[in-house]
């Protein structure tokens, strides 16, 4: 069994759901050497998150953003407000979606479904670049 770990930076992105599968795969040329395994993608932030969703229709991204804005609206009477009105809703959205995704690896590729992609979910209006830790654990070819 082998381990590989890489740190990458993405963005900055505007608020919304951003398909980042290609950037992640491009950062891992060694992926092709793994016969079987798992890729964990971990985001080192509390106001952005990761998820897997449909990768084909751009309307999915806008609908996801709209739903999460309803679940955690800026108008809610939060106590934690000193970083701006979008900060606490960003923490709530991040807690709901999570800080990592785990994707199987099969024959040198991510074993995502035909319509699946990895999303970086940016919950702040003005965010900086986001740091990801990519960790592969698996059996090499």
Strand content: 35-45%
Task: Give the spatial strand order of the biggest sheet.
Answer: 1-8-3-5-6
Reported for the largest beta sheet, the result is: 5 strands, antiparallel
* Structural domain tally: 1
> How would you describe the shape?
elongated
Q: What does the radius of gyration come to?
A: 16 Å
- The CATH superfamily name is YjbQ-like
Structure class: alpha+beta
Q: Say what the CATH topology is.
A: Jelly Rolls
- The CATH architecture term is Sandwich
Overall mean pLDDT score? 97
- How many angstroms does the end-to-end distance come to? 10 Å
**SSE order:** EEHEEHHEEEE
How many H/I helical runs? 3
Low-confidence residue ranges: none
Helix content: 10-25%
CATH C-level class = Mainly Beta
Describe this structure in words.
By secondary structure, this protein is an alpha+beta fold. It has one domain: YjbQ-like (Jelly Rolls), CATH 2.60.120. Helices cover 22% and strands 40% of the residues. The strands form 2 sheets. The protein has a 5-stranded antiparallel β-sheet. A 3-stranded antiparallel β-sheet has the order 2-7-4. A hairpin with a 2-residue loop joins β5 and β6 (109-110). The longest helix has 14 residues, at 58-71. The chain is elongated, with a radius of gyration of 16 Å. 23% of the residues are buried.
């Amino acid at each position: 069994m082998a381990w590989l770990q890489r740190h990458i930076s993405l963005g900055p992105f505007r608020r919304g759901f951003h398909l980042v599968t290609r950037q992640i795969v491009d950062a891992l040329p060694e992926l092709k050497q793994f016969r079987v395994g798992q890729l964990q993608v971990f985001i080192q932030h509390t106001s952005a998150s990761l998820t897997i969703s449909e990768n084909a229709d751009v309307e999915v991204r806008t609908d996801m953003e709209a739903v999460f804005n309803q679940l955690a609206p800026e108008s809610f009477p939060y106590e934690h407000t000193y970083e701006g009105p979008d900060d606490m809703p960003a923490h709530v959205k991040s807690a709901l979606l999570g800080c990592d995704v785990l994707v199987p690896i099969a024959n040198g590729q991510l074993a995502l479904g035909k319509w699946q992609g990895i999303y970086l979910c940016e919950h702040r209006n003005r965010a900086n670049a986001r740091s990801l830790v990519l960790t592969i654990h698996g059996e090499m070819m």
